[in-house]
């Protein structure tokens, strides 16, 4: 399954929020194109992430946009979890970083504190009846961090599964993963987790992204995050953050590999062009070229 994250990971690098009406247009376009899972934003404080202002209203407006469509939001704390519940979302994305500098920049917590909060939120989500997706950022290395041991990630995911997590994502936040590294990681995780519950959140250049996508798919990974045109990247990394896996690239690569997603590629391409028109002058120069 491809989950679109344009409205969250894509738009979070903009200098200001895209108008709510435009975000709703994009969401409906994604649903019409065939996406079954869309992350609509993050439940962050407006002073911390003004690009996500109006995420709750967007969730309410988009409710029932398409039968079978799952909407979710990224949640950082108890208040965010309560906001997600209040606006009717049935799924939340929760995460922690394995890099000390990145964790402090992103969450204001050290790695141990971030993981403890992740466990707490996972348990609270289960109690509230929410589907919990958990992610480990910098899972293949990052600022001040070599590639974490596979056994550490496997133990962390097993712990989160016991707390109620249902989806498990490896985030290559810094764009450092390589196909062989991915295959070894997936083989390790597959010993205790169903591969259809395992996902990849990839960053990098188009050719590396294609190689990592196909390596993950061939190893049995069931879920991949994408954005229109590859827009986005983590604003808490030093320097130029690598972009996301473009939806257009992922659809074409899987189609060529004999596993076409049930998503209309032409509709996605048209929506990507519509997004470019919407953004107009809003994209910072470093991100002005959406991947093709």
TrEMBL record:
<dbReference type="InterPro" id="IPR013785">
    <property type="entry name" value="Aldolase_TIM"/>
</dbReference>
<dbReference type="Pfam" id="PF00682">
    <property type="entry name" value="HMGL-like"/>
</dbReference>
<dbReference type="InterPro" id="IPR043594">
    <property type="entry name" value="HMGL"/>
</dbReference>
<dbReference type="GO" id="GO:0046872">
    <property type="term" value="F:metal ion binding"/>
</dbReference>
<feature type="domain" description="Pyruvate carboxyltransferase">
    <location>
        <begin position="1"/>
        <end position="269"/>
    </location>
</feature>
<keyword id="KW-0670">Pyruvate</keyword>
<dbReference type="GO" id="GO:0006552">
    <property type="term" value="P:L-leucine catabolic process"/>
</dbReference>
<dbReference type="GO" id="GO:0004419">
    <property type="term" value="F:hydroxymethylglutaryl-CoA lyase activity"/>
</dbReference>
<dbReference type="InterPro" id="IPR000891">
    <property type="entry name" value="PYR_CT"/>
</dbReference>
<protein>
    <submittedName>
        <fullName>Pyruvate carboxyltransferase</fullName>
    </submittedName>
</protein>
<keyword id="KW-0479">Metal-binding</keyword>
<comment type="similarity">
    <text>Belongs to the HMG-CoA lyase family.</text>
</comment>
<keyword id="KW-0456">Lyase</keyword>
<dbReference type="GO" id="GO:0046951">
    <property type="term" value="P:ketone body biosynthetic process"/>
</dbReference>
């Amino acid at each position: 399954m491809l989950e679109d994250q344009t409205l969250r990971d894509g738009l979070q690098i903009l200098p200001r929020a895209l108008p709510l009406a435009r975000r709703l247009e994009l969401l409906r376009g994604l649903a019409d194109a065939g996406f079954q899972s869309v992350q609509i934003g993050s439940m962050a404080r407006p002073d911390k992430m003004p690009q996500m202002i109006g995420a709750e209203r967007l969730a309410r407006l988009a409710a029932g946009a398409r039968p079978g469509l799952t909407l979710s939001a990224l949640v950082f704390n108890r208040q965010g979890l309560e906001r997600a519940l209040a606006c009717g979302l049935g799924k939340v994305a929760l995460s922690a970083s394995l890099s000390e500098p990145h964790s402090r920049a992103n969450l204001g917590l050290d790695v141990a504190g971030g993981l403890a909060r992740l466990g707490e939120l996972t348990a609270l989500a289960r109690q509230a009846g929410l589907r919990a997706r958990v992610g480990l950022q910098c899972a293949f290395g990052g600022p001040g961090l070599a590639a974490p041991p596979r056994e550490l990630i496997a133990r962390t995911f097993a712990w989160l599964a016991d707390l109620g997590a249902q989806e498990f994502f490896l985030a290559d936040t810094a764009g450092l993963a390589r196909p062989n590294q991915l295959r070894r990681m997936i083989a390790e995780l597959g010993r205790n987790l169903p591969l259809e519950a395992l996902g990849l959140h990839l960053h990098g250049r188009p050719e590396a992204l294609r190689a990592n996508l196909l390596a993950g798919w061939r190893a049995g990974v069931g879920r991949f995050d994408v954005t229109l045109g590859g827009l986005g990247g983590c604003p808490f990394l030093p320097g130029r953050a690598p972009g996301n896996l473009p939806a257009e690239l992922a659809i074409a690569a899987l189609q060529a590999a004999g596993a076409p997603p049930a998503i209309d590629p032409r509709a996605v391409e048209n929506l990507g062009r519509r997004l470019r028109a919407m953004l107009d002058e809003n994209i910072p120069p470093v991100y002005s070229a959406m991947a093709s």
